[in-house]
Queue: 2 jobs
Job 1
Amino acid sequence: MNCQQRKSLSAVCAALLGCAVLLLISKNVRGESLVPDNFDNQGGKIFAAQQTTPPANLEADSGGRTLARFYSLRQYPGSPPQIPHEVDLSFSGTETDCLSCHVKGGYSTEFAAYAPVTPHPENTLCYQCHAPIETEALFVETQWKSIQPPRLGQSFLSSSPPPVPHSLQLRENCVACHTGPGAVVEIRVSHASRGDCRQCHATVVQSAPLSEFERK
Amino acid sequence: MPIFSYLAMPREGAREDLCTELSNLEYCQIIPAENKEIVVLVTDTPDEDIERSLQLKLKNLTSLQSLSLAFGYDEQD
Amino acid sequence: MRLDRRQFIKQAAISSAFATAGALFPGISFGGWSSLAQNSGMISWQKSPCRFCGTGCGVLVGVSDGRAVAVKGDPNCSVNKGLCCMKGYHSVQALYGKDRLTKAMVRKNGSLVEVPIQEALDLIAQKLQETKDKHGKDSVAMYGSGQWTIPDGYVASKLFKGCLGTNNVEANARLCMASAVTGFMTSFGLDEPMGCYEDIDHANVFVTWGNNMAEMHPVLFSRMLAQRKRKVDVKIIDFATRYTRTSQAADKTIIFKPQTDLAVANAICYEIIRNDWVNSNFVNEHVSFHKGKTNIGYGTEDHFVFNDKAEPMSFDDFKVFLEDYTPEKVEKLSGVPAKDIKYLASLYGDPSVKVTSFWCMGMNQHTRGTWINNLVYNIHLLVGKISTPGNSPFSLTGQPSACGTVREVGTLTHKLPHGVVMNEQDREMAADIWDVPVENIDPKPSYHTVEMFRALDRGDIKFIWIQVTNPMVTMPNLIRYRDGALKDDRFVVVSDVYPTPTTDVADVILPAAMWIEQEGMYGNSERRTQHFAQIVDPPGEAMSDTWQIIEVARRLGFEKQFPWDESDYIEKIWEEYRRFHAGPKHEMAPYSVLTQRSGVQWPFVNGKETRWRFNPKYDPACTNGKEYDFYGKKDNRAWIWARPYEPAAESPDSEYNFWLNTGRVLEHWHTGSMTRRVPVLHNAVPSSYVELHPEDAAELGVVNGERVKIISRRGEITMPAQINGRGVPVRGMVFVPFFDESYLINEVTLDAFCPISKQPDYKKCAVRLEKA
């Protein structure tokens, strides 16, 4: 496939996916509802995503992304990942571009992979945080050291669901990153059809370990 | 299908690096000690070739001081 | 757990690495991993109901080397089908807090000292006998709980009502379920829901009445979400006084002003009638209309007495009564737009829609709790949506055996295991089964819970034995009742598993076996009796609450009534208790069936469980040959009640200008004495807080985490503010979870109660706020 063909194909994909996105967004809006959207770590997003994502997209697995790859695009756990693929120089990074693939996910023939789903599609100026990679070379060597990423499976009992090991800011929607074929295999859940993630997974957002409960 | 467990000792001050490097390797699981500069490493590889290449990778880790075998198992079938 | 071979080998590899490390570096620790590695790695699984809420999830407890080490959902249990919530998954950790009570303690010269448990039991029996001899039988009392196992409650009732002859037996379920009971009794003549959780798999519309199910009944809420996902046109309507996780998930949230649910429910009935949505066949055949007394008071004064009187009325009278409740009038009172009231009515009224209503504390902890229960039944009865799959007015419970022990065994002052103390035949039946003279059983009820603690304060009660509950956190208007319990000649015995504010006021503390450290049964919200075997040993001298009572009963000379052997006493007690419920209306499963299954629903007749009562397709007790048989009432009809709106006991005014609402969070259960000792739950919600509306917070000048003083006419408390956290109250309301003993919010609440059910209202009192 030459460059020209590739561009036109991706434009068509973008247009098709864009329609789907608009539908998805309109279904999410609860017309006259007065429920505030900014409380409890915006947990309403989880319920909306669970209800509107087709079962196939919740359950399917591609095995295409790994945790090693996931962290290789980040400077520290929680940093905005770099954009790992080529983007057009004219690309503006607005809703109709990045989000055409990254809201709903789905297979991209262009990249022969499933697109990861963003947990925060309401932020449409993607370039604000996500940097493209023009060169791998460094200006000067860095002495930067990252912290260790959270260990997987930090369950308190061998059978218990692990608590959420990361901050929820900008990552309120569990369904986006932890389900579907675009999800990182190590953190993809096998029970995505269940409705309420926080029923079992405690949101322990403190960074320092807390002392155990003691009576005063 | 070999399974091994080791006690891994990091070079001085490189415990965090060692943990990161080991957990980024495929087929490796680590359990760092809470109060000592020791990391338990468990490897679980699908075949002899991958096992050999993993051992090579382990040998080349700069953060690793020494690796002592605690348990070894290999299914011969 | 069936580890596959490879996992098993890997586990062995980890264990041997730990062993090597331990030999080389003594004292080396691998956190939680090492304790798992020390045991053999072989886990056996045994069934039990969950220890916490009234949902009654089936869990499988993993045991290794005599310790509970893991939990998974029981796939054979139809309640939860293998899924738990985070409390259930970590429940076994609640057994192993480091301050677990393992020795009996007796207060000597003001401080608690450890004594052998037999010595403590001697002292309890001696004090009980002395107090009874000196001050009369009604000077001694037992206060238990909806966490009592069925045998616990049964032996308590047998000892106090049957042997000692006092009706001073109450349980904390008075604080959470009493209005549900009186609601059922007044509307149907029989307690407990007609439907079951399977209704969730059939309903098209769910209405949660003041009920944050996403946090408080998360497993059932997930079943609702799954139903909505599976089918088209399933709706969840959240009818609430504050925004919660349930609002986040609901298709529509309708906010009403506290206490005005009474008016909205009547307005829904008004609309159903106005639009001709009444199911006339059903109403003509199966419903009768009644009214009771009005302007019934709030019980805030000592010795308050109220007896309702039912008067029959016609459907036309009922229509006239409803004319005060047009949606437009009710909009002004409730703040609910008339169009939303009409929308709710249209959901209930549409014959093609199956509606399940859920409620719990919002409707029960209400000074008109019995009334609002009646009113929701009114709606379902007018449209005939009841007792069929998916059409279900469903009263949920909050404790694992509020139904099983308190409601079915009848550990309330007026109740017996079958019937009430006021009824001569019921007393005769109890005397016969208990092997006591019938004169022993006092025909007059004594003190309900609030009045019991008032009597303790006044000195009418001098000896109280508290088991499996923490009233020094949960009593409303707490300061009075704590001061009362601390008075000089009051003798307070507390059986518990951890030190709590209640053990702080105790003269004797008995260490109790907890949950699976003993054999027992619970009964959940859907008439399901759930047996659990003793799975692990209790620590130290800890003893089951049942056996503690048996020990004391024998010391008081009641060997004949308490003859059982420790090896099979639970089975023997169950088979004795079962005799009270013989017959198709309430037949309980035999012991041998209970031990085999993950819960059995009663009535259990001819080997079959009953899913929907009052419907002859499912209920063998129906005999009238009609489509339904409401056999609980003498007229074989369900009763619709004309119940008006009356204001709350205390509403905000110019001086105390905020509503105070109290409640719970997903992570913690009740007073947190167990869940706060589970690391993951404590880490998630380490302390309580006061939720404010963002604009109220701005006016007060507080930001997240800053301290706010909450002041009522009873007391005051200073605690951190939470803004846009777990929930958002409306303007003019604050919300405080009560799990945290460091912030005793019940020092601020009011001890007003429903005059019919005697259940206090923890959801409404007036406070003012100051920035601290």
Job 2
Amino acid sequence: MAEPLNLIGGGLAIAGALLSLLGAIGVLRFPDVYTRIHAASITDTGGASLMLLGLGLISGLSFVTLKLAVIWAFIMLSSPAAAHTLANAAFTSGHAPWIGSFRIMRDASAGKQGPRRP
Amino acid sequence: MTDLTRDIDASLVIDLSLLAMLLVLAVAIARTRQLLAAILLMGVYSLVCAVWFMVMDAPDVAFTEAVVGAGVSTIILLGAILLTHGHAEKSSAIRLLAPALAAIAVGGMLVYAVLDLPAFGNPTSPANAHVSRTYLEVASNEIGTPNIVTAVLASYRGFDTLGEATVIFAAAVGVSLMLGFGDLSAGRRTPDSMGDHHVVLGVTAKLFVPVIILFALYVQFHGDLGPGGGFQAGVLLAVVVILHALVFGLRETMLAVRPGFVRGGAALGVLLYAGVGLVCIVNDGAFLDYDYLFPPEIEAQIPPGLLGDPDHPHHWGQHFGIFFIELGVLFTVAAAMISIFYGFAGRAPVPPGTEAGQ
Amino acid sequence: MLLAAAIGLLTAMALMIVRAIMGPSHYDRILAANSFGTKTVLLIAVIGFVFGRPAFLDVGISYALINFVATVALMKFFRYRSLETPLTQVGPRGTGKAGRG
């Protein structure tokens, strides 16, 4: 009974780590703050959920699982809130997105051309 | 045998990755001239150090490094660069020559000294073979707390910990003398809000404040059994007050946690700690010798077996002694960090974008 | 198996460090630091399991809380250049607080 749970838990943990890794690659590759915030916060929360679920399966029903659930609750509460606040602060301070009407209007009023297309 | 090999491989891979990250971070901190980036990277550096301490099996140290280095220290340094510059100037190569030579000399001496140290975890090294082994063998009999680190920190080396608490108190006094004690009038000058209204942040902060306080109390009282204790709990309490001040404004926080109360709390902590030591002297013991915390007539009235082994009644004094001094450290550390934050935040110039600063 | 997860997390953390150093704007750096903190909490949990010491989780819980506060402080510093003015409007004051102005 314990062995398949350990395997499933380990697999979930690896899946969570993989999701975090994909998010980190996204943060490196995406062109703009807002897209990076998407990459980082979504994959952080999802990867943390998978990984903590996997570790909880490995540790069974015990006090350790309760602590893992507490970590999960805090990450679920704080990570999206921090991402929202960061995006809000970036936008209201005038940081323009990579493409979109905000940048087009701002660049048009400054007399510049459109954004560079990849 | 395969388990031992797996442990060595796991340790080695994780160790090398962490060391590489530390090296890259150190070079980046030294090279950057944007101080906000430097502070942020220093927080990340402290975090990698905390993981490093974890890997070396030192959870108490890792706990303190994580909460202080990556938490409070970042916030207080931000307050410091609010009062000064956010950029560092570019130094010419000649001016950097002397510090570079000094750094190379000291680094070389450190590397030479480290090469002579015994291997990590070697049980026959002088540190591990004599004093540490004695502590590990007698601590459960003499002190009775499961966490040996707390037993050493609070009882065997209690005088040293009193020195640490006093140093933190002195730091708070020093900062207060330079920046002001953070009286309520500093909070009254600030404008009412930033203009933006962060609803999500306000709700999340409101949810987090009682949770962090509860967790700080858990860490405080769990310090006998696992990693934790007075220092970490004190820093967590200071962080919760800082969170409240950041989100709801310094004025609201100063109404809730008054600066006079904070000043008194810092002094009370050190007084409590030294007071425990003095009570031991009054009861015919040495300073901070908790076996003499209670006079014998009170100890005789304690029902045996209530706490621990009935054959070792001096556990009672040890437990209460450690309880009180951890409480003292909690008060001092929390109040010191809060008053340092009040000092920095209360002096910050009014930002130019708000109504009062136009 | 958990060691593979730990190595994956370490790689993700290393990539985040690159973004923290490189990020052209400070918002990139704050984002990278926040994400690094969350990954560190996970790494502490995994290391605790790899080395068989679940007592490490207390450190993870406390850093998950502190990460949020440090991110708020960094964002507030960079965006608003102040640590003291409130970010949300406080509610209407009751009768007891009016005299304390």
